[in-house]
Design a protein that fits this description.
The structure is a single chain. With 334 residues, this protein is an all-alpha fold. The chain has one domain. Helices cover 71% and strands 0% of the residues.
Length: 334
């Protein structure tokens, strides 16, 4: 049986990834025109990831899929492109004259091993390739999900308590630091604050699938849902409260609407293309932006280069390698 594809959600993931690319390019190159809330795309990623992972593995884990097998599948999906992002990050990173070879080696190793070793040097968690911070939390959320999905209990009260607790903690953090831009990224305290940031949104996605809440959402045209996400990410800066409205209310609603969206003729190819490029663009864009900036190139060129490199790596490196790894782990026909 061919697994169900949520094509509109694929497209929305692509929109979110392009928003991250654009906000990093605009912010890094010092231009004023970029989606000011593009950093919230990460929260949408976490919710979407929880939903699609639960859709793909909930029944299989409950039926006995072991952690080793689950971890291999997830690593095959995530690590090849993460490795490419680590290589590009190591090539493009310039720590400055004060950093010795040991420091540079430690920072590079941190990316390849997905360990936030930059925090030990009073730097951001992954200065060689900053977006890797969310992949650290993604992998941690995957492992936690497997542990809970072995015996998925339909305890609505406990689910609500968890969401309320993590949502309140996240709101307090956002109010204290003025928003979610640096939560999970910078200092050790900010990195620890990534736990409720990831936990709330990832749990929203898992629980939405587990309780089939998305099936109660009305069907609306796909382009409306996608446009709504783009608008939310593009709204000018307006305070920490806006971040929380998006994370606690708007993104869960858009996730449900996207899962049920009415697919308009002719747009499926667009959604598929956006979805396919979303992860490669997200994980390799920062080193390429840094390289173009150092060469004094225009920021639009940096974005075009990032998308083109993502497409090339996806087609000629990531997809062939993942197919090969998947064949090797598959049991021989009996």
């Amino acid at each position: 049986m061919t697994p169900h594809r949520f094509l509109v959600l694929d497209g929305m993931r692509g929109i979110a990834a392009f928003a991250v690319l654009w906000v990093h390019a605009g912010y890094g190159f010092g231009t004023a025109f970029y989606p000011r809330h593009g950093y919230l795309a990460v929260d949408f990623f976490f919710a979407l990831s929880g939903f699609v992972v639960a859709h793909a593995y909930e029944a299989r884990i409950a039926s006995g899929l072991g952690f080793g097998a689950f971890a291999r599948v997830r690593l095959i999906r995530l690590y090849p492109m993460l490795f490419a992002g680590a290589v590009l990050g190591a090539l493009a990173y310039d720590p400055g004259w004060r950093a010795g070879g040991g420091t540079l080696a430690l920072l590079n190793v941190s990316v390849f091993l997905v360990l936030p070793l930059g925090l030990l040097l009073d730097m951001s968690a992954f200065p060689v390739n900053t977006p890797i911070w969310s992949l650290f939390f993604e992998l941690a959320a995957n492992a936690t999900y497997w542990a809970t999905a072995r015996r998925p209990r339909r305890d609505v009260a406990k689910a609500l308590i968890f969401l309320v607790a993590t949502g309140v903690v996240l709101a307090v953090i956002a109010a204290m630091v003025g928003g979610l831009r640096a939560v999970g990224v910078a200092s050790p305290w900010a990195f620890l604050a990534g736990i409720p940031r990831t936990g709330f949104s990832y749990a929203v996605g898992v629980l939405m699938f587990r309780y089939r809440l998305h099936e109660r959402a009305p069907q609306v045209p796909d382009f409306i849902v996608a446009l709504a996400l783009a608008v939310l990410l593009a709204v000018p800066a307006c305070g920490w409260w806006y971040d929380m409205v998006c994370v606690l209310l708007a993104f869960p609603l858009l996730l449900a609407l996207g899962a049920q969206a009415w697919e308009m003729p002719g747009l499926n190819a667009v959604w598929g293309w956006c979805g396919a490029l979303s992860y490669p663009v997200y994980v390799i864009h920062e080193p390429l932006l840094r390289a173009v900036y150092r060469l004094h190139g225009p920021y639009l060129l940096s974005m075009v280069l990032a998308i083109a490199a993502a497409w090339a790596l996806l087609r000629w490196y990531d997809e062939p390698l993942r197919r090969s790894l998947a064949r090797r782990r598959a049991p021989a026909p009996g």
